[in-house]
Design brief:
Belongs to the monovalent cation:proton antiporter 1 (CPA1) transporter (TC 2.A.36) family. This protein has 17 helices and no strands. The chain has helices spanning 3-25, 29-47, 53-64, 67-85, 89-94, 96-121, 131-141, 146-153, 160-190, 197-227, 232-253, 257-267, 278-307, 317-342, 354-359, 365-372, 380-408.
Amino acid sequence: MDLFVVIALLVIVSAIFSYLNARFIKLPGTIGIVLLATIASIVILVLDKVDSSIADYLGTLAKNINFSKAVLNILLGFLLFSSSFNLDGRKLKKEMRPVFVLSTLGVIISTAAFGTLFYYVAPVFHIHMPLIYCLLFGALISPTDPVAVSAIIKNSKLPAHLETIISGESLFNDSIGLILFVIILEVARVGEEKIELAKVTMLIVKEIIGGIVAGALLGYLAHRLMHSVKDFQTIVLISLALVMGLSVLAVLLDFSIPLSVVTAGLFAGSQSINQDNKEKSHEALEKFWKLVDEILNTILFVMIGLQLVNLPFVNNYWVTGSLSIAIVLIARWMSIMLPLTFLRRTLKVNYSNINIMTWAGLRGAISIALALSLPNTPYRHLILSGSYFIVIFSVIVQGLTLNAMINSASKKIQE
């Protein structure tokens, strides 16, 4: 199928769903889009029993979209830049300690907890998977998705400091999750005995250090260029060139796209605009990136919904999904509670906020993209199905009930 046709169909479907949600359903944008796309896919699968032509066509459309590459190599860069560009650097600096711990140690704890729990609990429900693949499942599902998180919490009633922590964590924990995913996948492929420590170390250094250095250098260069001009169109083009250039460079040199783009976004933030024209230009630039963010978010979550058409059927389908949801919530809770327990003297996060932070840790396109990138192993379909259930539950159920949870715990939250 022609690339332009695929893009055109995605935009058309996104526009239709966005209109239906804004006009009739009136849910928060991301939740409404995911809900409509999921319902549409389920209806199509039901109609497939009568006439398979529609499902076959949409299945072909979904297959023509290389979801993993589209998310990880293209869309992610734009969406992360938008989030980091508009993030208040002063607030982030103030909350950097919990953000750092949760985005590093928290992801490792969550991966280990999810993998171990799934390995020991799943056989009770006649679901069997080797420990290394359970850990692989944990690695791809542990990072909170910055796209889903930013889309949901911007309409929530979260206290400002919690919003900064959760947003900051979601921006930085993708890189740790991706590195863990690659390492565990390599162990699963070659075996624990054959894994090369030097190779793993080089991967970590290259991904993290390379991503941060590239993002800082190019971000600072873009900062200087944008600061030296007043023309709005030129400033926008520089910001677009920064995101695209970094994404291409990161792919070519095996750097971390999330880290490089987030670092660049923090450098090219509000201080990048010439002071004589700052108010007008920066306001317009913020609106531009907000528009880009909203459009790409809509298209991205339509793509997630369409993936359901090609979702493989596995035995104990609903059991697998329900079990995965329960375990990921437990693992998320542990990944917050344990760091706060052992580092309570240095981390300034109140224990009463743990449940809120657990529920606000949404999963999204990155988890599905990583699951789809798995090689054809006997456990790929199981991991993909579980990931899809987690993402849909996360966006729709957790997204819709987050404010209710915040309100019920408002007396315990210290702003």
